[in-house]
């Protein structure tokens, strides 16, 4: 790799890395920032097919429903669609607690157009931007520092001149993270001075990592430098706008909040230029997972995702934090085992505390948040394939079919499942597991059958079992006696020539989880049959019938596998 072509941000001249006595590493996040979705502007400008008015409106409505209070609605001077959308908002009105933000470069004609778009809106933020980094100054704008400062201040003056009541101001030194700290400070202070920022009419200073070029600690230092040194600090809302070129946009935003940022601009699920803007969903749910209310409604994440996918015409990846299809799913055996145990422990703890499970403290291994918090069910938390173990298989049969397999049966059945999945290499659903279980244990044909049976309680701890027993095609009526009906059944089988020891036995009701009418019981029996040990299972509305079937299932499996 020709890595020698690139320089560490620390070696750049001029350097964008400030000298700051940092305090952010020892802080913690305790409150959400002011969130500002920029999907309708920064996200939109990164789409092959920018949103039409219908998709824009749908996304705006989603933001309002989620509880965003400041929403960047477009770049009105960029296109007729963006302009028309802002006019439409001015016509229909926006909720009283929502402020639209419009974006403009520092060019008089485009500023004029921007103000024309917001006429009639009771509130708006006009967001002015100009790049300040050395390469942009030299190559793109072809101005020195003074020239760029002049460009910015001319634009800021145009904005101030046009602004009526209800208009607040935002300034972004685009490429802030590449700009010399003293120059960033100089232009920001000049702008807040020109706009006469005051605590009752604060100015947003938005400090973008336009192209992410350094580890997140560098960005945090840059933000802390501004936080500590910017003039009129109490009249400034310090905002960040991280992109994600290095894949650390979320980390940059979080460290920047520790360093003094009060406001975060980003996009839902991280759409945006190149590798995207910082993902607001991840940021908000990261706070939630640390016990901090993000003050956004993310309780139906799939609906949010569907809307975002529809508006952007881009899919959200299956592994996307919090919102991807697979992010609450474990395929691997030991994870499944831990989740199954954790879920059982969670249910018990909720019961002990006397609260519903969704209100009990969450501590389930491998699931950083309760999927129910974002409207996900528990069906998908465990999915079974060749990487899975007994725990996951047992979990699916328990949650899907009410079966509570004894541990040793779980081990035995998981081998059956492994054989099936190793053969196909494919996932096995709960329904397919149930079919496998039925075929292996419940509907198992074999050489031994007992029909027309009856039991009698003939004395204290004494039971008789009588039935027509068929073994390898030979049929006869046999009776056995024992201390219970199952013990008596083994006596009848012995009389027919089949020696059976019941080693372990368990039974339970399947409750409402079972399909069909009634509430069938399931019985499990581990038996030694002529020296071969196998499990069997039976299912019937009668506990005794289920028990007899379980023993016969073990017998037939022992004789055929
Ligand atoms: C980091 C960001 O996301 S910034 C936002 C980027 N978003 C967009 O560009 C989407 C919308 N943009 C557009 O529709 C168009 O670019 C317009 C309407 C704004 C301008 O269009 P045009 O006049 O055709 O200019 P063009 O698109 O080529 O932009 C380049 C010009 O803008 C200048 N420019 C760039 N940024 C700024 C700025 N913040 N303020 C003033 N001028 C700027 C460049 O120096 C260049 O000027 P030059 O032609 O004299 O060399
Ligand atoms: C100008 C700002 C807000 C921006 O979009 C960026 O730098 O990415």
UniProtKB/TrEMBL annotation:
Chain intervals for the UniProt region annotation (Regulatory domain): 444-561
Associated pathway: Amino-acid biosynthesis; L-leucine biosynthesis; L-leucine from 3-methyl-2-oxobutanoate: step 1/4
Residue segments, region Disordered: 1-24
Cofactor(s) in the UniProt record: Mg(2+)
SUPFAM superfamilies named among the record's database cross-references: 2-isopropylmalate synthase LeuA, allosteric (dimerisation) domain, Aldolase, post-HMGL domain-like
Highest taxon in the source lineage: Bacteria
Positions bound to Mg(2+): 42, 241, 243, 277
Catalytic activity annotation: 3-methyl-2-oxobutanoate + acetyl-CoA + H2O = (2S)-2-isopropylmalate + CoA + H(+)
Domain Pyruvate carboxyltransferase: 33-302
Chief place where the protein resides: cytoplasm
Function (record text): Catalyzes the condensation of the acetyl group of acetyl-CoA with 3-methyl-2-oxobutanoate (2-ketoisovalerate) to form 3-carboxy-3-hydroxy-4-methylpentanoate (2-isopropylmalate).
Subunit composition and interactions: Homodimer.
Name listed for the protein in its UniProt record: 2-isopropylmalate synthase
Species per Swiss-Prot/TrEMBL record: Actinomadura sediminis
């Amino acid at each position: 790799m020709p890595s020698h072509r690139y320089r560490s941000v620390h070696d750049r001249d001029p350097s964008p890395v400030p000298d700051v006595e940092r305090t952010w590493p020892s802080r913690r996040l305790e409150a959400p920032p002011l969130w500002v979705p920029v999907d309708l502007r920064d996200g939109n400008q990164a789409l092959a097919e920018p949103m039409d008015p219908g998709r824009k409106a749908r996304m705006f409505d989603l933001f309002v429903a989620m509880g965003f209070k400041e929403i960047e609605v477009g770049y009105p001077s960029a296109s007729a669609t963006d302009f028309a959308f802002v006019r439409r908002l001015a016509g229909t009105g926006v909720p009283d607690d929502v402020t639209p933000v419009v974006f403009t470069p520092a060019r008089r004609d485009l500023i004029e157009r921007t103000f024309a778009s917001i006429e009639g809106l009771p509130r708006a933020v006009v967001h002015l931007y100009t790049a300040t980094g050395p390469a942009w100054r030299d190559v793109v704008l072809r101005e020195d520092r003074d020239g760029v400062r002049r460009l910015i201040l001319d634009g800021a003056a145009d904005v101030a001149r046009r602004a009526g009541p209800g208009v607040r101001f935002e300034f972004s030194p685009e490429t802030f993270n590449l700009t010399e700290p003293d120059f960033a400070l100089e232009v920001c202070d000049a702008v807040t001075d020109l706009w006469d920022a005051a605590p009752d009419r604060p100015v947003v200073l938005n400090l973008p990592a336009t192209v992410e070029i350094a580890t997140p600690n560098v960005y945090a230092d840059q933000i802390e430098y501004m936080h500590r040194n910017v003039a009129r600090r109490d009249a400034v809302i310090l905002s960040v706008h991280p992109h994600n070129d290095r894949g650390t946009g979320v980390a940059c935003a979080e460290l920047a909040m520790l360093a003094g940022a009060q406001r975060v601009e980003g996009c839902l699920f991280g759409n945006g230029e190149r590798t995207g803007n910082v993902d607001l969903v991840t940021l908000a749910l990261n706070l939630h997972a640390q016990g901090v209310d993000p003050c956004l409604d993310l309780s139906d994440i799939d609906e949010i995702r569907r809307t975002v996918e529809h508006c952007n015409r881009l899919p959200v990846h299956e592994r996307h934090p919090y919102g991807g299809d697979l992010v609450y799913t474990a395929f691997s055996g030991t994870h499944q085992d831990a989740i199954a145990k954790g879920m059982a422990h969670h249910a018990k703890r909720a019961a002990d505390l006397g609260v519903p499970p969704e209100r009990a403290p969450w501590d389930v291994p491998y699931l950083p948040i309760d999927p129910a918090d974002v409207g996900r069910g528990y069906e998908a938390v465990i999915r079974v394939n060749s990487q899975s173990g007994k725990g996951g298989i047992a979990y699916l049969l328990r949650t899907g079919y009410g079966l509570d397999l004894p541990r040793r049966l779980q081990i035995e059945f998981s081998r059956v499942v492994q054989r099936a999945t190793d053969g196909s290499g494919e996932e096995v659903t709960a329904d397919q597991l149930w079919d496998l279980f039925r075929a292996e244990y419940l509907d198992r044909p074999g050489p031994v059958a007992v029909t027309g049976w009856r039991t009698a309680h003939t004395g204290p701890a004494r039971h008789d079992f009588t039935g027509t027993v068929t073994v390898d095609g030979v049929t006869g009526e046999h009776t056995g006696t024992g201390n219970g009906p199952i013990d008596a059944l083994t006596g009848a089988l012995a009389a027919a020539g089949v020696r059976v020891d019941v080693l372990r036995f368990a039974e339970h009701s399947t409750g409402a989880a079972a399909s069909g009418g009634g509430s069938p019981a399931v019985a499990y029996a581990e038996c030694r049959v002529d020296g071969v040990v196998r499990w069997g299972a039976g299912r019937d509305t009668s506990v005794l019938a289920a028990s007899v079937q379980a023993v016969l299932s073990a017998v037939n499996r022992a004789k055929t596998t």
